[in-house]
Amino acid sequence: MEMNTRIISHEFEYFAPNSIQETLILLDQHGSEAKIIAGGTDLVSQMKMGKHTPAYIIDIKRIKELQYIAGDMVLKIGAGNNLRGVMNFFLPASVPYAGLYESIRSIGKTQVLNMATIGGNLCNGSPKADTAPPLLTYDARIKLVSLKGERILALKDFHSGPNRTIMEANELMTEIQLDKLPKGTSSAFEKKARVGADISKITCAVTVVRDGDVCRSCRIALGAAAPVPMRAFQAESMLTGKIMNDALTEETSQQVAQEINPPTVGRTHPEYRRHLAAVMFKDGFRRAWQQAGGGK
Amino acid sequence: MKKYTIHLTVNGEKHTLEVYPNALLLNVIREDIGLTGTKYACGTGQCGACTVEVNGEPVLGCMTLAVAVDGAEIKTIEGLAQPDGTLDPLQEAFLDTNAVQCGFCTSGMILIGKDLLNKNPSPSESEIRNHIKGNLCRCTGYNGITRAILKCSK
Fold it and tell me: Cα–Cα distance between A273 and A277 in angstroms, integer?
C-alpha cells in the first residue's frame, strides 16, 4: 500500500471497553482480526503505512483498572500507565530503578510520553523498545490475561522475534511486576541514537548489586542488538562475586560485544553496533556502580 | 463504515460531530471544525507540528483517533489569545525574539512551550531544550524559540 501519513486509509470498527472483562470478551470474539490500541504512537503510524490493517480496534486507554503502580515487596505496574506517569513515579528515590527512569526519559518527546503506555512499548514487540532492557535487568515478569485465565511469565520469554511476541490473539497484557531490589542495587541506561528523541541505534541497561568493592551480581540487557531485547548472560557471569577493577570491566565489555546478535541489514554496520555495545556497557556499568556505592 | 457521534469542547466551544473511527483528531480540527492553526507535517509522530492539548496535556493530533477523545477538552493555538485578540505573553515573546520564520512549527512550539511554563514557571535553558525535543523546526535553529520561552521564565 502506498504510504499516506495524513490519513488512515483503511476501515475498521472501533470499540472502547470500560473494563478488563469487557476487553477480554471482545478479544475472544475478534482477537485474530483485532488490534489493541492504547497510546497509538506505534500502531497509528504502522496503520498509516499499511503494515497493519485490523478489522477491529479495541481502545483500552480509558480502562482505569490498568492504571496503577503499587506494592512493596513486588511492585506492580498496570500496563495502561502512560510513560510519563511511570517516569514520574520513579523520579524521587529512583536509585535502584534509575535505569527505567532514564530509558523513558531518553524517549524524550513530551507528547509521546503523555500518549504511549508501558504495556504498549512492550507489546509492540520491537527489539528497540526502550523500556525493555532495564525491565529485563530487573527480572521483570508480565501478566497476560484471557477469558480462559491468566499466566505470569518472565519478560525475557515474551519477545519471540522482530516485532513479534508470544502473546495469543485473545490475551491482554495487564501488569508488569518487579521484585524489590536488594540493598546496594543501582541501575543505569545508555542509548545511542542518531539525534535526540529518536529511535534507538543501540541501548544497554545495567543493574548491579554492590558490596564495597565486590560486585555481588550484575545484570546486563541490550536493545536493538538482536532480533529481540536480550540479556547478556555470559558477560554477567564474569562479574558475579568479583572484586571490580578496570581490566575486568574492559574484558566484560568485549564479551558483551561478542554476545549480541546485531542485524546485518539497516543503516548501522554490525561491527559498529558491537563496538557501541561495549562502550554503552562500560558507561552504564560505571554509572550504576558509582550510584550503588553512594557516588564513589 | 459506521460513523460515531462524539462531543468535543474546543477552546471552550462545544462541538457535536459525526466521525468515522479512522478519522484523526488533527483532520477533524482542521477540516470539520475549521481551525487550521494546527499543522500537518510528518504525520508519523516525529515533528510535533500537530500538537494540541487534550484535557490539559499536549499530544500529537496526527496520531490520535478523534473517536478516542470523545468528551475531551481540547485547546489549539487559536485558544491561546484572549477573546479580544490580546496575545498570550508567550506569543508576544515569539514575535519579539524572531522565533518565527516559515511559521509551520510555531503552533506546536508555542503549545509545548506553554505546557512547560505551566508545569515549571522558571525553566532553565536546558530544561526548555529538553521539553521541546519532540518539536522540529527547520528554519530557526531553535535559538529564537528557546529565547522566547526563556523570556517568559520567571
Answer: 6
Assess contact for B147 and B92: CB atoms under 8 A.
no
Domain membership of residue A33 as a residue range: 13-59
Domain-ending residue, one of B79, B109, B128: B79
The total number of structural domains that make up chain A = 3
Instruction: Name the residue facing B42 among A5, A7, A13 (closest C-beta).
Output: A5
Angle of the A270-292 helix axis to the A98-107 helix axis, nearest 10: 130
One pLDDT digit (tens) per residue for chain A, 296 residues: 557 899 999 999 999 999 999 999 999 999 899 999 999 999 999 999 999 999 999 999 999 999 999 998 999 999 999 999 999 999 855 679 999 999 999 987 999 999 999 999 999 999 999 999 999 999 999 999 999 999 999 999 999 999 999 999 999 999 999 999 999 999 999 998 877 667 788 999 999 999 999 999 999 999 999 999 999 999 999 999 999 999 999 999 999 999 999 988 878 899 999 999 999 999 999 999 999 987 66
- Which residue, of B36, B59, B79, is where some domain finishes? B79
- For every residue of A161-205, DSSP letters joined together read ETTEES--TT-EEEEEEEEPPPTTEEEEEEEEESSTT--EEEEEE
**What's the ipTM?**
0.95
- Do A107 and A39 share a domain, yes or no? no
Shared domain for A168 and A132, answered yes or no, is yes
Identify the contact set of chain A against chain B, taking CB-CB distances under 8 A.
4-14, 16, 37, 40-41, 44-45, 48, 57, 59, 61, 108-112, 114-115, 196-197
Per the structure, how many domains does chain B have? 2
Query: What's the whole-model pTM score?
Result: 0.95
Inter-axis angle of helices B106-119 and B89-96, nearest 10: 130
B84 inside domain: no
Q: Residue B45 is nearest to which of A9, A13, A45, comparing CB atoms? A: A45
In this structure, the answer to whether residues A230 and A135 fall within a common structural domain is no
